[in-house]
Design a protein that fits this description.
Number of domains: 2
CATH superfamily of the largest domain: NAD(P)-binding Rossmann-like Domain
Shape: elongated
Largest sheet: 7 strands, parallel
CATH architecture of the largest domain: 3-Layer(aba) Sandwich
Length: 327
């Protein structure tokens, strides 16, 4: 059987990997929409004259004209590229912020149009997209690689928390809707970015934002709990299959992160009254008596993508202030 030809995005990622290894640190390469000039250097030659890697244009035969952007790293993720799904608000937005602060270029995919102009930095690319559209998702990934040159980190965060429905009242269409959003797009994204992560200069890293409901499900949340359990299993299998490619895959299980879209003031009042607590008491209903906020989860996820976790894969870490149901 003939080998499957490499996609343009994979070829660009391979070029970036080669140039980064020659430079000694990760760099960004951006495919330009211009015709090659006879005065442009070719590929590797551009690095022989630049020890600091200032913005430079060069021509790569068979690919096109690129802008080489980078310098010796100062921050942990300088010269690296992250993809975040569902990063227009809540935990996803906090993850994007933490990654940008650490120097990463960030591709942010979200159905919310606010994702486009969410951050004004040149290293930020927000793409409005319905991730249930497989063709559109593949096209978005392909175009994003042309902007930054590849992918080093992936954070799977997009999902919905539907209204509570018990099993005896669950319609198949409601079940399938949750699966089509919380589970299926993650398979597509992981499948498509695997060849990019394989070509990450410092090896690929993945963090999946799953849910406390995997470890301690609740009544009335069968579709959500099941979708997150399936996503967790997808991540566990990926950690087994991708270890040989030096790609690490870890997961977090946040619980009761109240500064997100699903926790409206009305929902908070209803849930706290159900337990006979005030809203403030309910927010700290864990063993440590602390409130878990998106910023903390975002910082933790960013650390998991960094060198502190470089020898770990297959982890599942609760972020919940301590739960007797999980412990």
């Amino acid at each position: 059987m003939d080998p499957v030809p490499e996609s343009l995005s994979t070829r660009i990622a391979g070029l970036r990997q080669k140039l980064s290894h020659l430079a000694g640190f990760p760099i960004l390469v951006s495919l330009a929409d211009t015709a090659p000039s006879p005065n442009l250097p070719v590929g590797e030659a551009v690095l022989t004259a630049h020890t600091g890697i200032s913005p430079t244009a060069f021509f790569e035969p068979g690919l096109g004209v690129f802008h080489l952007i980078g310098s010796k790293p100062v921050r942990p993720f300088d010269g690296e590229i992250a993809l975040v799904s569902g990063g227009a608000s809540g935990i996803g937005k906090a993850v994007v912020e933490s990654l940008l602060q650490r120097g990463a270029a960030v591709i942010n995919l979200d159905i919310n149009p606010a994702v486009i102009g969410l951050f004004k930095e040149s290293r930020y690319l927000g793409i409005q997209i319905n991730l249930t559209d497989e063709i559109a998702t593949i096209a978005a990934l392909e175009s994003a690689v042309r902007v930054f040159g590849g992918l080093d980190m992936l954070v799977l965060n997009a999902g919905i928390f539907p209204p509570g429905i018990r099993i005896e009242n669950m319609k198949l269409e409601d079940w399938q809707k949750v699966m089509s959003i919380n589970l299926d797009p993650n398979l597509v994204i992981m499948r498509e970015v695997h060849p990019l992560l394989k070509r990450a200069p410092r090896y690929g890293r993945v963090v999946i934002n799953s849910s406390k409901n995997v470890l301690a499900p609740g009544a009335g949340a069968v579709a959500y709990s099941s979708s997150k359990a399936a996503l967790t299993q997808l991540g566990r299998v990926a950690s087994l299959e991708w270890a040989g490619d030096h790609i690490r895959v870890n997961q977090v299980h946040p619980d009761q992160v109240f500064d997100t879209g699903i926790w409206t003031e009305e929902v908070l009042k209803t849930r706290s009254a159900h337990y006979g607590l005030t809203v403030e008491q309910y927010k700290k209903r864990n063993l440590l008596g602390v409130e878990i906020k998106s910023h903390y989860v975002g910082e933790f996820v960013a650390e998991m993508l960094g060198p502190l976790f470089e020898n770990m894969t297959g982890l599942q870490i609760p972020i919940d202030g301590g739960s007797d149901r999980i412990i």
